[in-house]
Specification:
The protein is of the alpha+beta class. Helix content is 36%, strand content 23%. The protein contains 17 helices and 23 strands. Helix 12 (322-330) crosses helix 13 (371-394), helix 13 (371-394) runs parallel beside helix 14 and helix 13 (371-394) packs across helix 17 (473-492). It is globular.
Length: 493
């Protein structure tokens, strides 16, 4: 018995085959082998052809079926890049390339909507500004490409479209509507006042199906092309960040999922529907939300995290490996002898109210400080950035108890992860998993092969656990206080 997980990213598509009984990944394929192209016709634009995602899925399934019988696939889960717009005609063919998550053309339209709908109503009902999310992207098409807009039969998220190609059914989820800023959290229904404001016919919305549960079944075309039996249930779908949290078994209030690559993401679960007054973080429905047991995902993105560590390696210590840098950093005491690093050097930061503060070292003593201090200060500075965002999330009702992450990127760094655990007074757990495996587990849960989340994650492998360092608490809190004051001064400039 196999569960198939498909992860549609903007850089690549990864597919994993999970043996349901053992809970182990038996096969995986990633395509393309180099980074997928993104079309940028104008500055700030970002588009991809949905047909390209399907080509990558086809290539991945062909790779896996060369060694495994896809006739034994019992369920399918799909995760996808969030906030993208796929608009289709009556033949369910895309009328244009997808406007994907990192496209910023609709920023002004979202700002107009916030003003005209009203700040208070948006915060109370949407928990977010309409911003540059999918609804605003569709409004941009309506305003700038009226002929194309007139041919639209339905609009979907990237994962919704791929599920249509597998099943022939057009659908979305409540979670997906919240990602598009089309969910009314107060009324617990689609946000008709947003579609009305934009002049979007509500009939363009697909049918709503559960995020975890049987949503559709594969058609004869899928069986003919891939050998996956007709009638196989698609029983899970989620955006990439909610799915990353799900893949780490982050389902309950107080649990947090994090990633720390070039940029960083913190995704925490709460049962309190509350908006950040400055929209520095965004709230969506989590994949396991129900009307009886509310679960909301609070998403924080930080552009400047690991990129500063990699910059330091390239420009200050090119002969060093990251392991060397970790050892140098570990030779310096907590608090870096007064040296602070602000890692926000990768553009405007939403968490800083869209300010560009730049990256810098503060308090550099040319006699006392060495590059080892710079390495430790950088790793601590990234942890400070996470703590800064987590404090905002705590004000929204998130009580951080456990932080889970894959053992990769910044979480390979002992100083960074111990600093983060100490600053947040939380336990950090590192796991061996990824998005496509999370989708496969979700599908097996949604199809009933796993009866409970506990059963679904019984075989999830915990690689390491990090607890707060008692001796670090005082120097780190003192350093963070100075770091935060410096940052707030820059935000106000």
């Amino acid at each position: 018995m196999y569960s198939l997980g498909i992860d549609i990213g903007s850089s690549s598509v990864k597919i994993s085959l999970l043996d349901i009984q053992s809970g182990k990944c038996v096969a995986a394929a990633t395509n393309p082998k180099t980074e997928a192209p993104i079309k940028a016709v104008r500055p700030g634009w970002a588009e991809q052809a949905p047909s390209m995602w399907w080509e990558f899925i086809t290539a991945g399934l062909d790779e896996i079926r060369a060694d495994y019988d896809l006739g034994k696939v019992d369920c399918i889960g799909v995760t996808y890049q969030m906030h993208g717009l796929v608009a289709v005609d009556k033949d369910i063919r895309p009328v244009r390339d997808s406007i994907i998550w990192c496209d910023s053309r609709a920023v002004g339209i979202g700002a107009e909507a916030l003003e005209n709908i009203g700040y208070d109503k948006c915060m109370e009902h949407l928990l977010n500004s309409p911003g540059n999310f999918t609804a605003s992207k569709l409004a941009w098409v309506k305003r700038n490409e009226p002929e194309l807009y007139g041919s639209i039969f339905k609009f979907m998220l990237p994962g919704d479209y791929i599920i249509y190609l597998l099943t022939g059914k057009v659908s979305t989820t409540e979670t997906g509507l919240s990602e598009q800023i089309l969910w009314d959290f107060k009324e617990e229904r689609p946000a008709k006042f947003v579609t009305d404001y934009y002049g979007i016919d509500s009939d363009l919305l697909p049918e709503i199906v559960p995020a975890i549960g049987v949503q559709a079944v594969t058609d004869a075309g899928t069986e003919s092309r891939f050998g996956i039996p007709q009638g196989t249930p698609v029983s899970y779908r989620a955006g990439d960040q909610p799915n990353n949290a799900f893949s780490l078994n982050v389902l309950n209030p107080g649990e947090v999922a994090t990633t720390g690559g070039t940029s960083g993401v913190v995704y925490g679960v709460t049962d309190v529907p509350k908006a950040d007054a400055y929209s520095r973080v965004n709230t969506f429905l989590h994949v396991n939300n129900t009307s009886e047991s509310h679960r909301f995902g609070v998403l924080l993105c930080i552009n400047g995290t690991g990129i500063m560590n990699s910059w330091l390696r390239r420009n200050v210590a090119p002969e060093c490996s990251y392991q060397d840098m970790n050892e140098f950093a570990d030779s310096v005491p907590a608090g870096s002898d007064g040296l602070l690093a602000l890692p926000f050097g990768n553009g405007a930061e939403r968490v800083l109210c869209n300010k560009v503060t730049g990256a810098s070292f503060v308090g550099l003593d040319l006699v006392r400080h060495t590059r080892s201090h710079m390495m430790r200060a950088t790793q601590e500075g990234v942890a400070f950035a996470f703590r800064f965002g987590i404090d905002i999330m705590r004000n929204l009702g998130l009580d951080t108890k456990v932080i889970r992450a894959g053992k990769a990127n910044m979480f390979l760094n002992p100083v960074f992860r111990s600093t983060l655990a100490t600053l947040c007074d939380a336990r950090i757990e590192l796991y061996d998993t990824d998005g496509s495996l999370g989708a496969a587990r979700g599908a097996a849960l949604g199809a009933g092969f796993y009866k409970t989340p506990e059963e679904a994650f019984a075989t999830l492998t915990k690689l390491e656990e990090i607890t707060p360092e008692a001796g670090w608490k005082e120097p780190l809190e003192e350093a963070y206080s100075r770091w935060k004051k410096e940052l707030e001064n820059r935000i106000q400039q």
